[in-house]
Amino acid sequence: MTFKLLGILDVQNIPCSRESILYGSLGSVAVGLGHFLATSRVRRSFDFGMGGFVLTTLGCWIYCRYSHAKLRIQQRIIQEGMRNKILYESSDFDPERKQNSNLESKS
Fold this sequence. Notes:
Blueprint: E1 4-5, E2 9-10, H1 17-39, H2 42-88, H3 95-106
Helix pairs in contact: 1-2
């Protein structure tokens, strides 16, 4: 069973959504409560809490998605390097073999 927030956002299957919403709700409570303790204005504190939720959620979402994209790029580079290593190993096109032969010829 999947949990859908507002009937649209599938929190379990979308990367970063769960963490972003949890951190956003924590940010909402912190900002709203802090503003209420400072000013004792309920409606204004609620508005600040909602703003804190939106800003914290978006900030966490953007940071998490950026980290995931960076990780996927690194994984793709590593996979391509491993594929090339397997293809070119012990052949005339192997870059390591060329470097070793250049070093031996210079000596």
